[in-house]
Specification:
single chain, Immunoglobulin-like, 5-stranded mixed beta sheet
């Protein structure tokens, strides 16, 4: 925008003595004594020199910055600054070689920007929160032509920027809102408007009353409306069936619990009306029972999650939170768990039956002083007598020498499933009790013969100072912390299952 100003340049040309003919001074001013404009506008600047004497003086003018004025050599110029700028004028008297200067600061303000927001529509009697899209470089003010009033939320940081219009009772039609921005220095005010149309509410009603169900039950709804369009929605995690009709069915999700809302929105001409029904879901919270692996013929108990407020019914007739059974083949059990609200939970437990060691036989090889169990190849054989474990490990034989009495030997055999079986005590003969093998030497040299001291027996090995060099069931390999021990005499103790000394003696380590 260009502002038109009247430039007045006064030259007082007076004939008198030459000594009084020079320019006496200058003064620069803006038209109308204004010093501020809006960005994009122009302003006229004037300079007025004075001179006396008989000499006709034609002064020389120079404006700076020259690129912001139309004619930097004129007395009056049109200035178009893009930012706040200090303009300087220099006037030279060519007769007397005198130079005068003056300056003026022109403030440039950005233009105001105002956007009242988009037109909207609402139901009669509903308050409306105004949503202006922007304002800057201005102070602002809202106005309207309706019958209602503005309400301001003083808890907001800028409450007067986001007023709420409260309509008069029954007010309808179009309300015009005016959003005015008063410009900063030198800028005029601007305004923007938005229209709000109030419409009558459409009729909508959900006839299904508030209710409570179990999580597995579908929930049927029925509603009516005079609106041309409607929409069902909910606050749960489930889904609708037939949601394009006024008789949909809500299917709860497994994660639905507590109270959720089902809403029907009726959409009329610019107005949405809604009705709501509350649905309380009482799921029975029970952890799934994991499938089981058991050993054939072994008494087993399966537990559900126990809760005194729940009742239980197993497929085998049990009514506790657990059921006992003995399985000889793969099977499954079903259980129904019901809470005190009548909601129930069904679960199925699949039971895989693993075999136990079978066809076991124990014999005594008197010639080689050895007790042997067949068949071979099981994970672990544990030899017992009345005092406890004699030997435990993958070996199916137990060596002995120097019988010291009689006793019954039992063997517990374990397979790869962890299932165990004892040799039938009725088939076990009363044998000569094998005393532990009395080993007096071994040679851990890697030739596969006597490389370990008493494997599969619970032994502890000491040196002459009483320091423990080894303790365990795998047999001593003649090392300590991976380092070979020197040839010599050491001492070992065979322990019973209750950690009592079964046998002790010296042993010589050979290489």
């Amino acid at each position: 925008m260009k502002r038109e100003f009247l430039i007045t340049l006064f030259f007082a040309l007076v004939y008198s003595l030459p000594s009084h003919g020079q320019i006496q001074g200058i003064k620069v001013s803006a038209e109308g004594n204004k010093s501020a404009i809006c960005l994009g506008e122009s302003i006229q600047l004037n300079v007025v020199p004075s001179s006396y004497g008989p000499v006709f003086v034609i002064p020389v003018f120079r404006w700076e910055p020259a690129n912001m004025v139309d004619n930097p050599a004129a007395a009056g110029v049109i200035a178009t600054p893009m930012e706040t700028t200090l303009f300087r004028i220099t006037v030279t008297d060519p007769v007397f070689n005198l130079v005068y200067s003056d300056s003026i600061l022109i403030i440039v303000s950005p233009p105001p920007v105002i956007n009242a927001g988009l037109d909207d529509s609402l139901c009669v009697n509903d308050p409306y929160a105004l949503k202006p899209l922007s304002y800057k470089n201005a102070t602002y003010q809202w106005a309207h032509n309706g019958k209602g009033t503005f309400r301001f939320d003083t808890t907001r940081q800028d409450p007067y920027y986001f007023p709420t219009y409260v309509p008069a009772p029954g007010e309808s039609g179009t309300i015009l809102f005016i959003f005015t921005g008063q410009g900063l220095q030198g800028c005029t005010s601007v305004s923007d408007t938005m229209k709000l149309n109030y419409f009558e509410r459409p009729y909508v009603e959900i006839h299904t009353p508030d209710d409570s169900i179990c999580s597995v039950e579908p929930f049927s709804l029925e509603a009516s409306t005079n609106a041309p369009h409607f929409r069902w929605r909910h606050t749960g995690s489930g889904t609708f069936v037939n949601e394009k009709t006024l008789q949909p069915v809500y299917i709860p999700d497994k994660y639905d619990h507590g109270t959720l809302l089902i809403i029907l929105d009726a959409m009329g001409d610019g107005c949405v009306n809604s009705d709501t029904v509350s649905l309380t879901i009482n799921p029975i919270r029970v952890s799934p029972i994991p499938d089981q692996e058991v050993c054939r013929g072994t008494p087993t108990r399966i537990f559900a999650e126990c809760d005194d407020s729940h009742s239980y019914l197993w497929s085998n007739g049990a009514t506790s939170c657990y059921t006992d059974f003995i399985a000889f083949r793969d099977t499954s059990f079903h259980v129904v768990i019901t809470n005190n609200l009548g909601c129930f939970y069904r679960d199925t437990v699949r039971v895989k039956v693993n075999p136990v060691p079978s066809n076991l036989l124990i014999t005594n090889d008197y010639q080689n002083f050895r007790v042997i169990v067949t068949p071979t190849g099981y994970v672990k054989y544990t030899f017992y007598n009345v005092d406890g474990i004699l030997q435990e490990g993958p070996s199916n034989s137990f060596d002995y020498r120097d019988a010291v009495g009689t006793d019954t030997i039992l063997v517990l055999v374990t397979n790869e499933f962890g299932c165990t079986n004892f040799i039938d005590i009725d088939k076990t003969k009363t044998e000569i009790l094998p005393a532990p093998v009395k080993v007096n030497a071994f040679s851990p040299n890697g030739d596969g013969i006597n490389d370990r001291l008493l494997p599969y027996r619970n032994i502890t090995v000491f040196d002459r100072t009483g320091k423990i060099l080894y303790k365990g069931w795998d047999g001593w390999d003649g090392t300590l912390n991976g380092k070979e021990m020197p040839v010599g005499t050491y001492f070992y103790v065979v322990m019973d299952s209750d950690n009592t000394v079964f046998y002790k003696g010296p042993v010589t380590l050979l290489r």
